[in-house]
Structure prediction request, 1912 residues.
Amino acid sequence: MIEIELDKLHEECGVVAVFGHSEAAKLCYLGLHALQHRGQESAGIAASDGHRLNCYKAMGLVADIFSGTTLQKLPGTHAIGHTRYSTAGDSALLNAQPIQVDCNKGQIAIAHNGNLVNAAELRKKFELAGSIFQTSSDTEIVLHLIAQSRETTLADAMADALRRIVGAFSFVLATYDHIFAARDPRGFRPLAMGRIPGKDGAADAIVFASETCAFDLVGAEYIRDVKPGELIVVGADGIQSHFYAPALEQSQCIFEQVYFARPDSLVFGGSVQAAREQMGRQLAREAPVEADLVVGVPDSGLTAALGYASESGIPLQFGLVRNHYVGRTFIEPEQRVRDFGVKLKLNPVRHLLKGKRVILIDDSIVRGTTSQKIVRLVRDAGATEVHMRISCPPTTSPCYYGVDTPERRHLIAAQKTVDEVREFIGADSLSYLSLEGLRLSCGEPKGESHYCTSCYTGHYPTGYVDLHQVRPVEVVSK
Amino acid sequence: MIEIELDKLHEECGVVAVFGHSEAAKLCYLGLHALQHRGQESAGIAASDGHRLNCYKAMGLVADIFSGTTLQKLPGTHAIGHTRYSTAGDSALLNAQPIQVDCNKGQIAIAHNGNLVNAAELRKKFELAGSIFQTSSDTEIVLHLIAQSRETTLADAMADALRRIVGAFSFVLATYDHIFAARDPRGFRPLAMGRIPGKDGAADAIVFASETCAFDLVGAEYIRDVKPGELIVVGADGIQSHFYAPALEQSQCIFEQVYFARPDSLVFGGSVQAAREQMGRQLAREAPVEADLVVGVPDSGLTAALGYASESGIPLQFGLVRNHYVGRTFIEPEQRVRDFGVKLKLNPVRHLLKGKRVILIDDSIVRGTTSQKIVRLVRDAGATEVHMRISCPPTTSPCYYGVDTPERRHLIAAQKTVDEVREFIGADSLSYLSLEGLRLSCGEPKGESHYCTSCYTGHYPTGYVDLHQVRPVEVVSK
Amino acid sequence: MIEIELDKLHEECGVVAVFGHSEAAKLCYLGLHALQHRGQESAGIAASDGHRLNCYKAMGLVADIFSGTTLQKLPGTHAIGHTRYSTAGDSALLNAQPIQVDCNKGQIAIAHNGNLVNAAELRKKFELAGSIFQTSSDTEIVLHLIAQSRETTLADAMADALRRIVGAFSFVLATYDHIFAARDPRGFRPLAMGRIPGKDGAADAIVFASETCAFDLVGAEYIRDVKPGELIVVGADGIQSHFYAPALEQSQCIFEQVYFARPDSLVFGGSVQAAREQMGRQLAREAPVEADLVVGVPDSGLTAALGYASESGIPLQFGLVRNHYVGRTFIEPEQRVRDFGVKLKLNPVRHLLKGKRVILIDDSIVRGTTSQKIVRLVRDAGATEVHMRISCPPTTSPCYYGVDTPERRHLIAAQKTVDEVREFIGADSLSYLSLEGLRLSCGEPKGESHYCTSCYTGHYPTGYVDLHQVRPVEVVSK
Amino acid sequence: MIEIELDKLHEECGVVAVFGHSEAAKLCYLGLHALQHRGQESAGIAASDGHRLNCYKAMGLVADIFSGTTLQKLPGTHAIGHTRYSTAGDSALLNAQPIQVDCNKGQIAIAHNGNLVNAAELRKKFELAGSIFQTSSDTEIVLHLIAQSRETTLADAMADALRRIVGAFSFVLATYDHIFAARDPRGFRPLAMGRIPGKDGAADAIVFASETCAFDLVGAEYIRDVKPGELIVVGADGIQSHFYAPALEQSQCIFEQVYFARPDSLVFGGSVQAAREQMGRQLAREAPVEADLVVGVPDSGLTAALGYASESGIPLQFGLVRNHYVGRTFIEPEQRVRDFGVKLKLNPVRHLLKGKRVILIDDSIVRGTTSQKIVRLVRDAGATEVHMRISCPPTTSPCYYGVDTPERRHLIAAQKTVDEVREFIGADSLSYLSLEGLRLSCGEPKGESHYCTSCYTGHYPTGYVDLHQVRPVEVVSK
Prediction:
């Protein structure tokens, strides 16, 4: 059996929240379904029945976890949900979210997208003071902070807690009567607010989600983003906005635009699809090459390929076909078929590629192994030249803000020059989009900087990365 | 819960066979995986251990049915495989294939893609003569014919049997020492022959598959198609070709080109992807319209959209995004979200569509219900005009040759004029590709006719359709 | 992992039928549940909706196979059911029963308890004549015989078929409007008829089952046994009894009394529990020994132990406790625990056994391996003497009438003298009940012979055993 | 579907621990298997690999939860395990045990059998001080107490924690290098210590288990019980015994003897089987009645029935047969079969009971509903008189020490006189064993009192029961 994983970076989470709707848990479920690409390992929903929270979470895909029966056990008009990706090492149900606790502020459920960089330090401090930790998740720390805050209202205690943590976070929380949504002061991760118009004069339902594609499925309209440093409280008494901290220099994750987010989403207020087409166009301007065809690596490279083709005038072709029936593992023949893993997912269209000079467009090269195989597939299908174009700069540094990146030594662009990478993957030429070009494509005026680009630059906006993270509790449950 | 089925016709089967390879069953498994789009209901493999056949079949997807353990129970160097789509009514494991029996010709396993039109008549005759039938499949009849043939060799008995059946069939069969591949004299369904080069001077392995995309995954080269009326016998003594019947007027299923086959396959010796691009181009010539964007309905409409855009000069955009995590059923909110089922699969990219005149390209309209929803989605996303273009003629007649079509009264184009269909789906304009144009796109010189187009014309090549089919044995097993 | 199988013979099947009840399939399900001990490998039910039969069968236990949903797909007022034990070699779903076919006599479903001894001969004849076989079950032959009979009514065709087969059989069959029940002329296997009184003046429902414990669960009263050579037809027109063949010398399986049947059943019209107590009493008279305790090997040895204790005046004790949570396989420590497999199922009560002379009562010794371990367990728990008493004669010959026995060379009593067996199992003494004594215990007057005792005597009532059975079709499906 | 639950009280847990064995987790698994009767809802094991603890827990039966693969993920030479029964309301995986945390004392896993009566009070105190609670289990409190203890060694911190809790508890704990076993000062719940002799001069492995039947399966010898108020620490440095508190008046749960414990176990140092036989004998002396048969209600009433029969001289008969294939739920016919639920589990042997005066022996009557049905079954089978004898006093008060009892208003003996209960269940006579007689049967000399009998007397040894328990966190996960 082989693991069929293309060489991509993985998002760590998607969050969703609904307030004021008779089918709150069901809408969370649909929202999570739309956010499934942000995490396929586990999912969960916590819903308030008006008195207490009920929570259900399990390993697997959203549609497999939640059935009609399960959702019936989550009654109530407000709920939060979470979907999670995680590395094998701590793939624990106990780390699945929402995490729900009882404490002196009452019952609280929390769901988190992002990563705290002062988690280990805080955890150590709490342990010394006598606290116990049941998960290896940094999210648990936030609950301790809320519980131990001396503030007397929950909103104040949350603000207090949020001020003590450093890093990337978009949170949704639920209590028996409110939901809360908050973003870190740098705004690393997206979090959008929307509205489902009430029927027959009823009040609107308020929804939050990592991406607006979740709104489309539940019939919600986008209102605005939760702002960096903002804590929004939604209850029967209305919606209140608090700024628990001044916004710092904005550090929106640019890789959301490049790869993570669904193309039909708005993130950070802008269209992902439009940004990707611009990346392709800009790439055509920065790195033109004479060729017969432009081929995007499906699915994520297709839009940039369209942009490149439009800008360059070289025809776009669907020269690689993706097989959507492939799961995570597969039985491989013992007489190895070359590039078998990639072949299961992608098949070249021989007829199109034969005898052609091909420009391949992809969104990133992480370890380089998949790119090498794709280039080989395309050549084996008869292409005479293969020119690889990547719609972002070389990935040279790990992310500490919620993206699962390999260590630096596994990032091929951290270890090799562009030409060495080109040689490794076997392409005739290789170009990356410039950082400047990427920012421009994302609509950022020259000189301005609203994006975190640390994976390309190694410049970390928090100026602080907690490198000796405590080893997590190894708890496995199914 | 709602069933999430887009309004498409369904292929009924894919077949594969391997001879002369130490991992025959595993290669069948991979081949079936590549043919998964031809049938998602059940799959099976029968392999010869040199003395006897062992068969394993089950309901579900290929990758879920076969594990390493299961494949170990299918040792041997030749094997056949089958994947099946079927309507709910007779979704029985007992109807899953291969069907394997003992008879006076020894042990035989058979896998079938197609449909016999004289099945009911033959079955009745056999029943009167004292035969028993355990499945509702027409394939079982072929086994009775083989067993009762007076010919003394198996190849002769098969030829005898094949001459007695009428309709569409691409068969692969296995005995303890041979595999057989046959196509009906009109060549309705595809069946390709390929070769896996032997390593270190070993003999080549011979493979057969419904489509060549199966060859790509197992590292096989395409040799040629099995010819209409041909029976190929592969054994330790080599490959023999028999023409059990003269080829009749060729009636290749044109809908394989339009929708069924994978774009990376060759079927009937030609590239599917190329044909689809031509359909789009031809459609642009036949049915031009002033607009801002061309948007293909994913995934099957994308290639024709590319052709339409190229030919018309109107920019292609990925204005509809497909969610690939969707399974067959889903929990729907009680407060109905309009067009919910389609929304789960397709989401419009609002930013691209807003204020635009959009040409939507799809490959077919069956009942019209899905098209209506898609048009509405695109309009709700802000499109000012929606022009639907279909890359084949109106589907007006059911297929009796192996495609699962609804009855005529459910085919919208059989009940309404094109303009009425346009009105029903809510488009500003609607055009279908002409039959002439479709043939041309499939590379057919004017005036010639190698394709069955009965679903567009109601002209059935067999001149004979057995309409009062016996009601099948309703056997359900899991 | 180890297989946890005590050394017992296995029954091959249980059958049940219901006519004239609005919940026919549900009652079959309950009846099969009561007969679960007769077969744990697969189960199935075929029910008539008044026009057609619907059948559902699967691998596993009755309660796992049938859910409310499944039973809803089996509407109608008459149904038959089957539960099956089988050896690993041909544990195929395709061999599961009922087998249901279409033929010139209409649609027929059949369920069979027993074994035909002229199956291979008949199968060969049919194959030569051009029939195909899809299972390796001898039951399929009966369907061919029915289909090919020249009789014009189904009852006559069945009678015709039943006259052509030799061996042990209790059949139930269903067509769209009747059920049928038949027993072979020697009456090897039990088959009882009962009645569920109709409510509010409605007609009684008629039921058939291998054992009367099935009647108790569905609220039916025992009427009588189906007689050897009898074919009972139940329809809207009432109940008809046919004697398709004269009854031959009766050959009721005596091992039903010794071990197979549930103690709360009547089989062959007599109480199983009563017979077993008599076996114990008779054993005490035939093979007395001075001792402190009588301990039955649970669960099947308990009743004979009670009889032995009563007759001998030696106190009964529950000195071995059975763990009812044990499944079929189990993970074993690498540092082997002695007699681990038996220990998982049976634990000695040390306190009772310590320093005591123990008489162990069991119902049979097949290979001797389990008995050896049990004796050792009891000794290790401190017993000073262990005297084994078996409530039937030595098992020396395989059964050809529906019981799954090992080959003669694995039957310890066929290979060793009683004293050698005693030595092998490590007992201080060993005695078996005499054949005379066993018959007496089953209520048979001296000199009469209504029982088949071939497993003790090697005398086969059919005078004919088809030893070169055809190798079955190896079909595996899940 | 109906729930098939006989009317019994349920134990809440079994615990096991192993130190110094190369297959520690596997032995825990076997031990839990032997303790399966103490809890069928969830199970878990935490094992130390020498550096860290790894924990695996899930819902279900031990044999279903743990596979070879799972146990491989739990390497190391010491481990603890837990199996749990729980009421539906808080049947959460998050409440499954062991609970494992990180804290200032390092990593700790804990498994608990019993119930704390000051849990709510302590929890409230902790919450006020800023602690968070993730489960609704009282066990979590112990971990907070350990973490917040000012003692500097873990053993001292544990002793400190144990002194602060009140109630019933038998704990096993594990850290990376030690295991710990402790019992409350009153000794409510059993906890035995044993030894597996080391092979080839290796050191012995030390094991702990709720009952000694767990020792039998892993090949361990019983050493002694952990004493009330004792904390035993086992490490590479040997075994140390601490008395963290003076033993109080002993309050061993007498219901362990009556019903909970397996008959082949020693609990509180005595044989369960022997005690139960004495209960039956004593009952015969206290409540004789003229009758023809003594019938025990299987399985738990059988031993007392044996004692009653021996003492009274009235013959024992197995007049009720238990069906061991019954799961928890079952499909019931709509035309209700009377007493269906009980019939699925128990079937009367008509032949034995017909025309007889029957003494039924059972171990308890909780709500009375099952007893009513059993009496009716026996009567329907033809018994002329039914005399019910119960091998303990009337259950009149709920247990607060780890047994899941219904509220007082559902305990029939708390609401009705003995004669009213007799009338309710429909017996001709009804007698309970006296408390005196029960104590005597358990080997307690007159006047002494080592047992808790609060379920019969309402006298609670802790003199303190926390009635307004906090409502637990409703967390559901699978």
User: Anything to note?
Assistant: The first strand of chain C starts at residue 2 and ends at 3. Chain C has a mean pLDDT of 91. The radius of gyration of chain C is 23 Å. Chain C touches chain D through 61 residues (CB under 8 Å).
